[in-house]
Amino acid sequence: MQIIIIGGGKLGISLAQHLVDEGHNVTMIDRSEAVVQKTMDTMDAMFIHGSGVSADTLKEADVQHTDIVIAVTMSDEVNMLACLTAKKLGAQYTIARIRDPEYLNTLSFLQKELSIDYAINPERATAREISRMLRFPFAGSIETFARGRVEMVDFRAAEGDPVVGLPMKEMYRVNKQLPQVLFCAVERGGEIIIPKGDFVIKPGDRVHVVSDVETITRFFSALGKGMSTIRSVMVMGGSRIAFYLVSMLVRMKMKVSVIEVKKDKARRLADSLPGATIIEGDGTDQELLQSEGLADTHAFITLSDRDEENLMAGFYAAQQGVKKVIVKSSRDTYSGIMHNMGLDSIISTKSVATNDILRVVRSRSSRANAAVQRMYRLMDGQAEALEFIAQAGDKYIHVPLKNLQIIPDALIAVIVREGQVKVPFGNDTIEVGDYVVVISRKAGLSSLGQVFR
Amino acid sequence: MNYKLVFRLLGRLLLTEAALMLPSLGVSLIYGQGDTLAFLCAIAITAVVGALLSFLLKPEREDLTARDGMAVAGLSWVILSFFGALPFVLSGAIPHMVDAYFEAVSGFTTTGSTILTEIEHLPKGVLFWRSFTHWIGGMGVLVFTLAVLPRLSGRTSHLARAESPGPTFSKLLPKMSDTAKMLYMLYFALTAIEAVCLLLAGMNLYDALIHALSTAGTGGFSNYNASVGAFHSPLIEWIIGIFMMLFGINFAIYFHMLRREKEPILQNEELWTYLAIVAGATLLITLNILPRYDGFFEALRNAFFQVTSIVSTTGFGSADFNVWPLFSKTLLLLLLCLGACAGSTAGGFKLSRVLLLGKSAYRDLEHTIQPRKVAVVRLEGKAVQESTLAQVGVYLSLWVVLAVLGTLLLSLGQTDFVTAFTAVLTTLSNVGPGLNGVGPTENFAFFSPAAKLLLSFMMLAGRLEIYPILLLFAPHVWRKN
Fold it and tell me: A208 and A283, same structural domain?
């Protein structure tokens, strides 16, 4: 597809790289010559130096024949205007990043009036994801499928867990009382493995399991990692994500305190978030953290703009015995280091937004309904978890799975039919209208048909 | 340097070259003049070396750095010319390796200087290969490889940039492979149109192909001693003259024509300057040589042909301009250094660089009068980066240094300054003929082997725009990383 990306910031570059890798024709527009120069050397895309709101620049990027325009500059206003201009010049579909809380309430009106087909707010989406993580503190991350009926949860296997040390095929024979979930992916030593029958889980592996919500819950209580609820949260850094997150947590009746170093920012937060305690101070100051009761908080979340500060504060909190530590990091290279040092819950606004936009692009590039419904990337894109809806007329409908050839390194994780969640076996079939969740190490699947040979 | 990756890429290029020798093998089979075996051997040797390099080497890292990209560009042309010389040596057409190497470099760099004294007796397959090297070298063998091979490596724009002529490199389409395909499609179409025109003008198929291939690459190898003059046909001279001019135009212009986009063409200052220079020079030379020819139109035809031949850096001959008045010769010498548009198959200094130099000179003059004025140099309606302007200045100095040093070294074995000077200029500009001893009716056979290697170096430096070739002499590039 022909795609124009306006704005070559962190998100823009990451998106462009992924889209180029998926084989799309990408043209990037940025106002900074330096950005254009730097990325031109490393990426097989076209670069135009200019402003995304200028009709001339957009025409130079051949906007008339463009399928998707993605506006991700620093400024919400530029993004909105760029989408409007692009649409009027003939672009098929527009995506704008709009993240200022001021626009939150008028968003749907703006979207309609400015013909923005899809608006993303990465900060808000990140906040939502963090709040979900807080509900299941034992898990590194939780992703949902089939309108929330299915969950994919990852946890770190520890010495003594009943799942450790047994081959997959033996596991349920030995542990008869263990609820049946599907082990769909294991991260070990920086690599993703899709486990087969003779695979053995070792302590320290990050294991992704998938099943319906109830089974997942029973599975974790059987593992002894049951639900311990989080009632008090400390947030370091008063960024936009913090604003969105704290307003969600306050609504969930949690006790929240936010540490922000800048006085005016702290004041503004205190004004807009009356339900939370705002503390003016440096979040990396250990004495301050102690005096504000770090030892008694259930969760510590670092959301400052500097990765290094987040990392150090996160380590400190984990060392002090805080049950759940979530660290924001915008650099992919850090996530490996953090996993190795025991911090499991890492969140990156960039990858939340990249995943979201890639899903939209993929669903545009395949047939109307066969599209990807949901998509998550594991381990920085080494594997993907995708949700599809089975379509009438496709060749795999009503054929027992054992008779279908599945592409290598892919796995049909669950099938959801009329609300019933099922881990499929050889005799099961896919029927029209089923939700199907697929785990694949091959990137770029855009329809269910591609899973079968 | 990532040796394994660089040499694997070179291996792929050699495989491509072996495949590109196949048409010449076909021609040698048709005419059966005893050069078939030479082509079979050359193809076998090139393919085996290429296959060994590309299948045995397994690089640990796949990403091509800017430095390695430059090294690939420089090395590939040196090595391709070596293997391209094999058919000449093996067939006995050019027995000495240095001579054959000179001829192959002259072919790939689209120079068209030859060391052959008797062209017409050579086997037709060899002559076809000679012109075919022009065609490959014109658009660039790396660009060709990018077009046909699926993704050599992630970062391939270094390669294309090192090989495409001009101060800046811009893609026509977002994907490098699509851009390369589009360029070769336009190139192929224009070449085919010229071949058909020449056929209609009365050439036989073989001659038409030879001359179309040589014009397209702006090379200048002919299969006749008297070059295009051998046909004694005004119509053929007009056709080749016009096509030489067309191949000196940036291929982006044809791309915009195909897309029916008027504005980028109208805004292209380089194009209009180029056409104005061709028209102006033709007119001045016509008036200057009028007394020597009977009638205005004959003088016009000869002037036009020589002007387009020199300015597009092709180097076909239809008249001996060595006997023309000094004014015409000097004007042609200027055009020889100038070259045609960036992004074409032509060599030389490139018009867009001259435009940029002129504009920044004007701005500096203005600056002495109004020191506080902030002025931006524009080309094609767009502001040009200061760093680009600086690069053009540096390029000019490198060019001059190479020309001066080359003349100095070449004068060791020569008696005539004009011969030595124009031999260096014409090879550095990839034109072909010079003046006096290397004039349009002469050849390069009399130079010593050392001088031939020096001129080969000049041709490669000119074609790759100096940097990739010069970098091969930097120890830093060869350091293992």
Answer: no
